[in-house]
Amino acid sequence: MTDQETTPNAGWLEVTVEADAESVEAVADLFSRYAYNQGVVIEEPFVQQPDGEDLAVDPTRPVRVSAYLPRDERLSDHLQRIAEGLWHLRQLGTVGEMQTAERPEEDWANAWKEHFQVTRIGRRFVIRPSWREYTPEPDDLVITLDPGMAFGTGLHPTTEFCLRWLEELPVEGKTLLDAGAGSGILSIAAIARGAAHVDAVEIDPVAVKALRHNLDLNQVTDRVRVIQGDVVEVVEPSGGYDLVLANIISNVLIRAAPTLAGAARPGAPLVLSGVITQREAEVLAAFEAVGCTLQERRVAGDWVSLLMTREA
Ligand SMILES: C[S@@+](CC[C@H](N)C(=O)[O-])C[C@H]1O[C@@H](n2cnc3c(N)ncnc32)[C@H](O)[C@@H]1O
Q1: Which of 1, 15, 113, 227 is 20 to 30 Å from 285 by CA-CA measure?
Q2: Domain map of the chain by residue range?
Q3: Which GO terms describe its cellular component (predicted)?
Q4: Is 257 in contact with 286 (CB distance < 8 Å)?
């Protein structure tokens, strides 16, 4: 967590819901409106393979979304609103019943932080939560993160897809667009791989705060420009980027396809992530319609990532 100036003292109510992949972001958004410092934990049933190669999601474990609500005079009102919100979300997807658990005040620090361990992704990237020690191996590219409420701890398959592409694609000396930058994890990773410059676009002001903080932590503020706003409105469709990264939900990707395709220089790759398999065909069609060609697709459980190139 970032910016925890004061912590309420009356204890916490932890609320948890299990949801399908498509509903997770909406549930997390709902919880974040009432959670302390808008913090939400998403536990993806994702397991890292020992050989570091393949991604795998454990289908026997559901996705869990949880948050800590302060035990204050607004609690019952907030629970009511969450219950209403969950009811609406159940009309659209699979969202389980809300579970609650009392948490004493002293659980707070650990409850947040125990979820985030030092994690190796691919051969070289190591995600280090800012409160954990890590001694790097010679080739490691360490990304120090304080995820706060922003998406992007490296633990989510959609982020991992992008990190693996970043390890494989030519990045050195290039100019990148990170559309939907969240915590800034991909922008920082790109700079660690030798990118010359990244434009990091993020719509959510709370995420932008975490993003700036993480750029500071990694001392890359001079090479990453933060642009707050909707990617469709703030990105130049003639941007001439050498690589476009977009880990955003399908609806936004589809809407932003002309902008993102235009932003890539002719022949440049676009990495699309955040796509659930049910929406893959629509996302693909949207990008093909604006002159992009599929090069490769990777799948992990319900999630798919597409590597496309803009026509030369
Ligand atoms: C799935 S997260 C990805 C975060 C990070 N890039 C990663 O790979 O882990 C998607 C991010 O896109 C942001 N976002 C959603 N719609 C957007 C839009 N129209 N323009 C810019 N950012 C957007 C969200 O606020 C969220 O932080």
Answers
A1: 227
A2: 12-113, 119-310
A3: cytoplasm; ribosome
A4: yes
- Decide: pTM greater than 0.80: no
Q: What is the pLDDT of residues 196-222, one digit of tens each?
A: 999 999 998 878 988 999 999 999 999
Give the residue, by CA position, lying nearest to ligand 1 atom 4: 182
Q: What is the CATH class of 119-310?
A: alpha beta
Q: Where in 125-166 does DSSP place strands (E)?
A: 125-129, 141-145
Q: Which CA distances in Å does 180 have to 15, 49, 176? A: 27, 27, 13
Q: How far is the CA of 203 from the centre of ligand 1 (A)?
A: 7
Pocket of ligand 1 (CB under 6 A): 150-152, 158-159, 162, 180-182, 185-186, 201-204, 207, 230-231, 247-248, 252, 274
Q: Strands 175-179 and 197-202, how do they pair?
A: parallel
Ligand 1 atom nearest residue 187's Cα: 6
Residue pLDDT, tens place only, 219-258: 999 999 999 999 999 998 887 999 999 999 899 999 999 9
Q: How large is the ipTM?
A: 0.99
